[in-house]
Design goal:
The chain has about 400 residues and is mainly α. The chain is built from 16 helices and no strands.
Length: about 400
């Protein structure tokens, strides 16, 4: 029996990694499918294209702040239940999308979905840290970020294909079916046993629990290295995800003149980020996170500047390079936050992701100002200013790491 125990533990760890990666794909398909369907949504619900973008922005906004709620909840009742319940409710909410008759109804359902989508990203890294052996942790984080990237690619391309070939009701029915299959797999794969957080064993008053939760957030926000990791992730996503939105407008216009669906194929450039995420664990262990932050910044800078070359090939190459740099940054931030947090782990991760998605929300209006002034050239100028801020944040992080040249323990 003693010989079987390590094998059983390894099997349970593998199941957990598979389960949360599949859950991540489900989450990002549900989040980003509508981005590839915005023209179809505008036509079906008889609203302007600008107004149609609300279906994505309201979801991202509620997702960002719901992350904090799930961090508190999972520290109290455990990681398993919030993930499973939120995923099944997410699947059910897609039925409401099928029968949405007005744009207002659609927005309200998407607002609800933002709250349900937050559970998996808020809890996953803390779940990995508590359930996995140290040698599994970085590998799991890298594969998980890779799954995020794949979900983002599949969701957007999936949405573009459905918008071109199916009605709104049929499209949402297909999303419901895909979500249902994914949620069933996740429920089956998730191990039923988990290490319960210490906090839920304490018998204290409600006010005391609230104070403990508040103190948990303050604890991580008072850590300057944590704050810098939050800023780095938020600034990187603020630039990258919104660049992908505006480049579609650029390549649909002359001289490129791509169709709506062909323009969404630019999201295949996320594949370089998928590759970088997969290799990030090995690179972090070998080189440390701080050097990788610097490499990632150079990649995002070079990739962004390359898009100024007036050819479609240069634009595609630029976005492949930028996506690689961004996902390397995101992987380093995720791993650093998860490994650095010794308590209130879900709160640490949720604070990072809250900044991450708030960055995405703020980046749209910010780069829109530059787009109105000079279209894509203006977006590049706006991106350069964000990269300067990112350089300052990485430099400050280096100052606080003078005693060691790595951010993550190499246990």
């Amino acid at each position: 029996m003693t010989e079987l125990a390590p094998t059983y533990r390894s099997h349970a760890q593998t199941r957990l990694i598979w389960a949360l990666c599949i859950a991540s794909v489900v989450i990002y398909i549900n989040l980003y499918t509508v981005q590839g369907m915005l023209p179809s949504i505008a036509e079906h619900f008889d609203v302007s294209g600008a107004k149609a973008t609300l279906v994505l922005s309201v979801t991202s906004f509620t997702l960002a702040f719901s992350l904090l709620f799930y961090a508190v909840l999972s520290d109290r009742i455990g990681r398993l239940a919030p993930i499973v319940v939120s995923l099944w409710l997410l699947a059910a909410s897609n039925i409401l999308l099928i029968f949405a008759e007005t744009f207002d109804e659609l927005v309200w359902v998407r607002l609800l979905q933002g709250g349900l989508l937050a559970a998996v990203p808020a809890i996953s890294m803390a779940y990995f840290k508590e359930q996995l052996a140290p040698n599994f942790m970085l590998k799991a984080a890298a594969v998980y970020i890779m799954a995020n990237s794949m979900g983002g690619i599949v969701g957007r391309i999936f949405g573009g294909l459905m918008a071109q070939n199916l009605s709104w009701q049929s499209s949402m029915g297909l999303v419901f079916l895909a979500t249902l299959i994914g949620v069933t797999l996740v429920t089956y794969l998730l191990p039923r046993k988990e290490i319960k957080p210490v906090e839920i064993k304490e018998k204290v008053s409600l006010l005391r629990k609230i104070k403990q939760d508040f103190d948990g957030f303050v604890f991580h926000l008072s850590d300057q290295q944590m704050r810098l990791a939050y800023v780095i992730g938020g600034l990187a996503f603020m630039m990258m995800v919104n660049q992908f939105s505006f480049i579609q407008l650029h390549i649909m216009a002359e001289p490129y003149g791509l169709s709506r669906f062909n323009a969404t194929l630019i999201f295949l450039c996320y594949s370089s980020g998928t590759f970088a995420s997969y290799l990030s664990a090995k690179w972090i262990l070998r080189y440390g996170s701080l050097p990788l932050f610097r490499v990632a910044l150079c990649l995002m800078l070079c990739g962004t500047l390359l898009t100024l070359v007036d050819t479609l090939v240069a634009i595609v190459m630029g976005f492949l390079i930028t996506a690689c740099g961004f996902f390397l940054t995101h992987s380093c931030c995720n791993s650093f936050v998860a490994m650095r947090a010794t308590s209130h782990r879900a709160k640490a991760t949720s604070l990072y992701l809250c900044c991450y998605y708030l960055g995405a929300s703020l980046g749209g209006p910010y780069l829109m100002l530059f787009w109105h002034k000079a279209e894509w050239n203006g977006v590049v100028v706006g991106s350069m200013s964000l990269l300067v801020l990112l350089l300052v944040a990485i430099w400050r992080l280096g100052i606080h790491q003078q005693s060691t040249d790595v951010l993550i323990s190499k246990d």
